[in-house]
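FAQ
Q: What does a multi-component entry look like?
A: The components come first, one per line:
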Amino acid sequence: MSTRTALTLPAGAGPGAAAGASARQMRRQQLRLLLRSKTFLAGAAILLAWIVCAIFGSWLSPGNPLAQNLFATNAAPSGAHLLGTDSLGRDMLSRVIAGSREILIVAPSAALLGTVFGTVTGLLQGYYRNLVDTITSRLIEAFLALPLVIVAFLFVVATGPSIATLILVIGFAFGLVISRTVRTAVLQERDLDYVAAARLRDESAPHIMFVEILPNVLGPVIVEFTVRLGSAVFTVATLSFLGFGVRPPTPDWGADIAANYQYLAAGYWWETLFPALAIASLITAINLIGDAVESVVIQ
Amino acid sequence: MQRYLVKRLGLAILTLLLLSVIVFTAGQILPGNPGRSILGNLASQQAVAQLNRQLGLDKPVPLQYWNWITGMVRGDFGRSYEYRAPVSSFLFPALGHSLKLAAVAFVIVVPLSVLGGVAAALNRGRAVDRVISTTGLSLCTVPEFVSGIVLIVLFGIELKALPVSANAPPGSGVLTQLRYLLLPSIPLVFLLFGYIARIARAGTIEALESDYVRTATLKGLGRPAIIARHVLRNSMLPTITVIATQTGYLIGGLVVTETLFNYPGLGRLIYNAANQKDFPMLEAGVLVIGVVYLTATLLADLVATSLNPRVRLQGAE
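Then the predicted structure of the entire assembly, as tokens:
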């Protein structure tokens, strides 16, 4: 941030460079704190395990997640099938491993899209603070009167379910929430001296927003990203449970639960319980990471 | 106070109008021809065109919006594409069912989470605090269909203690109905407990550290009296607001819970409408959820205002 200002403005080189170095030092210090936090390490270990499953799933899994075996339907967990089989005789362990793929693509993409969209919107709203801000704030208020799942319903139904729609809809809705946080942070920054100084230097508005203000509101943005990542997994799982995610027979935790929960009454609990535990463990992992990041960034 | 009320009400109505525009716009994105999708592939082009005219779909979009929104105000919610009957004859019974389920969840969660939050704050940093805070945080991050399934397996199938479906046999008494609603309401309780407890805890801690509590302690008032008279009264303000905003999330959560437990509420109605592309039903349902949410936040604001003279006077400025 200030390093680039220093390059274009020799007069400010001294203090600017020093600020840049101390910011870098602070970031390194934060990273060290993070790596020493047990909460972070526990969360990262679980998340890493699922990422490995998503990437190398086809090597790790004991069988083909799509292979049906009509002689071994609804088989309880045993040596042959560690997590049992579903109503089509498909191996649950293989399906749970393969089910990590879709959600680990969709949820981070949606969280990232939402963070970028929300940050840009929040910067614009907070910086200009004019009629546009008033109108967009009202619109955002109106959107947030609806639960996310309902907003997703409206748009997924209107445009047809697909991975891209899912990412766009969740990303858009998260962006609205994030923009409010960023806007508030920008409002606290915009009257500070460094922004006034940049204005006096005749810097352009985009330069002030993205080069001067953005680095100073990055803390809340990072925290928002980790929090949203957790709720993105929550939302994606919920929408695919409701049938608005990937199409069968693609393995997916939420969709598998939806397909199998009717057999719960018959006692075939393993077909739903293991995908459910997979979702819970992934969300818990991300939340542990988020907690650790939040405590480090806020310190 | 009166001016504040008017201003607050005006903002709520403005938000509701914007919401209706959003919902209506979403309906316009839908590709395809409603007349065709109602009558099917075999119907003649003439019949389709006539039905579209009857539905008012040949008029310009702004006029369609005007007809739709004025109809809503008069209590005409349009006709369902799927059932070919007025939307309102499905919408209001479903809303009633949902409110019943939500009420059961609320009656359980509000005292439980407020007590939990206050207990955590009074034992700040000790084991009680840590257990309550961690449990609350982990419970509210698990999707309700995940916790719902674990509960069904545990209480419905293994222990056979509670019915797996939310629907009591027709004509059964209040107590039986409650028994059937208990299991579906627990995932909702899980979802809300963490948020409300966290705010109640934060509010209580803030009140405990305030000057007026110190004054009360110094003038020799006993701790129970301080907590009852000074701390709780102040810590409940943010809690009330959060309880109200969570109603919105509660109703969002109902979609999943009602689907999982096969309960004929508003959430399942919207879910079915979405699956059947029954847009009049979907739009009306979504708008009703918005109205419920805005009413809840408005009520919370009013309660918070009447409890806190500082907010009351600030709003009057």
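Q: Is there any commentary attached?
A: Sometimes. For this entry: The interface with chain B takes residues 138-139, 141-143, 145-150, 153-159, 230, 234, 237-238, 241-243, 254, 257, 261, 264-265, 267, 269, 272-273, 276, 279-280, 283-284, 287 of chain A (CB under 8 Å).
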